[in-house]
Amino acid sequence: MIWSGAAAAQPVAPAAGATAAPAIEVTGRVVDALGRPIRNATVRREDGGAQTTTDALGRFAIDAPVGTTLVVTSDRHEAALTSVTGPVLDDIVAPSDAGERIEITGQAPTPAAGAAELDREDIQRLPGPAAMSCAR
């Protein structure tokens, strides 16, 4: 099961006399909402155990017992939580930070020699339904 964003899991204390589950090597991948890998994200055990960092493809490996909650953090994404269910985890999706802003600056390229320049009225005078949808 995978949780992300503001959702939080509460750790459950083991029953009295219970022994801790053995740690296994767990592998997985951290991606954004579009499925792109997130590199340099920190993956750590919620109980304060091991931690690691994702590679350029968003992959990681960490030692953790089954049932352990992993916390994923990144500079540009919200925190994500997942529970260790076995040695290979489904992709962990870390949503983009709500404060993310994309700004594009620059100038339009210079038109090629001989290229026609059309304004809205020119496009509306073109015959056919495609011209009408372009003018909207």
The CATH C-level name of the domain at 2-8 and 20-93 is Mainly Beta
Number of helices: 2
Distance between the termini: 45 Å
Strand order of the largest sheet: 1-7-6-3-4
Q: Helical proportion?
A: under 10%
Provide the CATH architecture of the domain at 2-8 and 20-93: Sandwich
Q: Report the count of strand segments.
A: 8
CATH fold group of the domain at 2-8 and 20-93: Immunoglobulin-like
The radius of gyration over CA amounts to 25 Å
Which H/E pattern describes the elements? EEEEEEEEHH
What does this entry look like structurally?
The longest helix is centred in the last third of the chain and has 7 residues, at 129-135. Helix content is 10%, strand content 30%. The chain has a 5-stranded antiparallel sheet with strand order 1-7-6-3-4, with no helix packed on it. It has a 3-stranded mixed sheet with strand order 5-2-8, with no helix packed on it. With 136 residues, it is mostly beta strands. The protein is elongated, with a radius of gyration of 25 Å. It has a domain at 2-8 and 20-93: Carboxypeptidase-like, regulatory domain (Immunoglobulin-like), CATH 2.60.40.
